[in-house]
Design goal:
This protein is α+β, with helices and mostly antiparallel strands. Helices cover about 50% and strands about 20% of the residues. The longest helix has 23 residues. It is elongated.
């Protein structure tokens, strides 16, 4: 096996057509789910960061998000399973409902910036509250962009981020 084949196996990037197919399968599943629940909403499909990204908008759907996004996380996982059942491949699709994840991303970036400044000024590491994988990734990406380091620690569902001073 050549070195190139080994690298490709370690980081399998899906083609845009495959991701669009995942998005279409997911959209069909979500439309059926909305129909069963007799809810209105439009589904937008996109491809972002090597994954299918879907958003349900246009209805009064905040109850499908839950108080801290736990219902949204569950619907996302069910949608991923529906895609996996149809394609045979694990899906990393992201689902947003009524802009919850987009708003949460903005809040988390701000939090990461504030805590990074605190770590710099005090010279101490900062431990954040437990977060899901989506939220931890936003923190890690923001901290890295700011030139600091961070790590996840603990076990789910109590996994958290620690930010280290430079």
């Amino acid at each position: 096996m050549s070195e190139i084949e080994t690298v490709e196996e370690k980081s399998p990037l899906k083609g845009v057509a495959k991701l669009e197919e995942e998005g279409d399968i997911a959209a069909d599943y979500l439309e059926a789910l909305l129909d069963i629940a007799d809810l209105d909403g439009d589904i937008d499909i996109d491809v972002e960061n090597d994954r299918a990204a879907l958003a349900i908008v246009g209805g009064k759907l905040n109850h499908l998000v839950g108080s801290n996004g736990e219902v949204l996380d569950a619907i996302q996982e069910l949608t991923r399973l529906a895609v996996q059942t149809a394609t045979g491949d694990r899906s990393r699709l992201m689902l947003d409902i009524e802009g919850f994840r987009a708003g949460r991303k903005s809040e988390l970036k701000k939090l990461a910036e504030e805590k990074a400044e605190e770590a710099k000024s005090t010279g101490a590491s900062i431990k954040l509250a437990p977060m899901n994988a989506f939220e931890r990734k936003i923190i890690h990406d923001t901290i890295q962009d700011l030139g600091l380091t961070s790590e996840s620690d603990g076990e789910d569902p109590n996994r958290f981020v620690v930010i280290y001073p430079a």
